[in-house]
Amino acid sequence: MIAGSKLEKTINSGQFVVTGELGPPKGADLTQLKHHAEGMRNHVEAYNITDNQTAIVRTSSIACGATLVQMGLEPIIQIVVRDRNRICIQSDVLGAHALGVKNILCLAGDHQKFGNEPGSKGVFDIDSMQLLKGLKDLRDEKKFMGGEELNGELSYFLGAVENPFADPFEYRVDRLEKKIKAGASFIQTQCIFDLDRFERWMEMVCERGLHKKVAILGGVTPIKSLGAARYMKNNVSGITIPDELIERMTGAEKKKEEGLKIAIETIQRLKEIEGVAGVHIMAIAWEEVIPEIVERAGLYPRPKV
Amino acid sequence: MIIAERKPLEEIAAMAAPYKRVCVLGCNTCVAVCMAGGQKEAEETATLLRIHRKKENVDGEVEVFSIERQCEFEMIDEVLEKLKSYDVIVSLACGVGVQTIVEHVPSLRVLPGLNTTSMGYPTEQGVWKERCLGCGDCVLDLTMGICPITRCAKSILNGPCGGSAEGKCELGKDVDCAWHLIHERLSAFGRLSDLEEIQPPKDWSKSHHGGGARTSVREDVRIDRG
User: Fold this and answer.
1) Exposure check for chain B: N or C terminus, fewer CB within 10 A?
2) Domains of chain B, earliest start first
3) Which fold, A6-296?
């Protein structure tokens, strides 16, 4: 056991894991975030708190995470390398740890060009791989990135992201292996719509035995509308949506219900794929639907660990 | 080479408006190659500026000439007396040229006529691409001669990231993913296993971020003026 978080315990128990995602608000009122968190209290092991996702200014992930800790819930703090240098990131990790955060997800972050401060200066002092390795060494070797010694102990559970839909496809398994080497104990993937491609990726992952070294949580996003599907297909980097799916949404009478059905079918298929340890549900601006998805996908009640 | 582009004429005209005797000074090296500030562009800029000033009823005259390189004291010295006869110089050199004149002849008033963009080269007629950020610690040996510090939008040393699709960067289809290119070259040379190694955080202290403008000193070639 590294951090003793519920996420880690559930992964270690070998049971299918469910995590959800919460996007902090564009303001300091956390009422809605708390409401959404409360609504899925019994449906997810832990909650990803995004870090200024798509480079849009929002309440900090650590502040929202600490709020969840106060509610007796478990956050997975996202940290992107776009906005902070290694001094600030390490300082924030110490602060998050002090506030009771036990899970950290390391990622690069969308380029600031896409956000609401396109004139800002991207930091990118380190990359996501170096962040992962740096935080692993800080925890395990008790050494800061610059080599100085850490006072005391740290015990957080480290995760990373991988995108099986990015290119070069063959490199995506090498990169996963590299992230495991750098310190990832769990992986959350980009939203899965192209299940055939995801299966091909998982086959390669299992061939190398990587699924035994890291818990892979498949990313699932329910599509709220045809417009949302089209938008993601054309505008969101790293997401592939097959034409059949767009056609299915086009033909559906009740779009929201169809979107939910697709998400539930995706989860059911993911459960059957060798090496998939769980799902990470990213219901963008539709957080209230997560409990229903979990229940209808046959993942409720959640295991006690 | 250094790549620059001319500032909008209105901006140059507004900067130069308070001055009567204006000199548009071209620079015939880098910025002449990128067609922003050589003799030809200096003449063109001076002509446009004259027309603009006439329209706006701004008094005075605009003259034009150019020197080989504005970034060398010796070349500035050759035209020093002439430069001193103007109220202002609109330099069509890169930012280095403007500052070289100011540092060498503090009494001169010099305005930037160009926006300096990058270090790079032309890939075709009319297209210049940035290729070096001057980070002070070259990694091109690790990356098959393709610079990820410059060409990757996130300066990633362990790429490609999850935003790379069909060889293009998440920034857009007109931007090549540097790490895709590096991956291709490593593959072609049978060196893909190079990517297995985790490259450590970069030492940015050798770059501009290490403490502002850098000074390079070569004691072996310095002249002892003692």
Assistant:
1) C
2) 2-118 (3.40.50.2300), 133-199 (no CATH)
3) TIM Barrel (3.20.20)
**In the structure encoding, which two tokens stand for residue A95, read together?**
């602060």
- Give pTM, 2 decimals: 0.95
Lookup: tokens for A136: 């692993």
pLDDT at position A238 is 82
For the record, the structure tokens of A120 come out as 């800002």
Put simply, whether A178 touches B (Cβ < 8 Å) is yes
Q: Could you please report the per-residue DSSP string of A207-246?
A: HTTGGGTSEEEEEE-----HHHHHHHHHHSTT----HHHH
Identify the three-state secondary structure at position B187.
helix
Considering CB atoms only, which of B156, B159, B198 is closest to A133? B198
Please check whether residue A108 touches B, CB under 8 A: yes
Is the ipTM beyond the 0.90 threshold?
yes
Q: Do A110 and B163 touch (CB under 8 A)?
A: yes
Give the pLDDT score at A234.
Answer: 86
> CA A303, CA B62: separation in Å to the nearest integer?
81
**Residues from chain B contacting residue A130 (CB–CB below 8 Å):** 157-158, 198-201
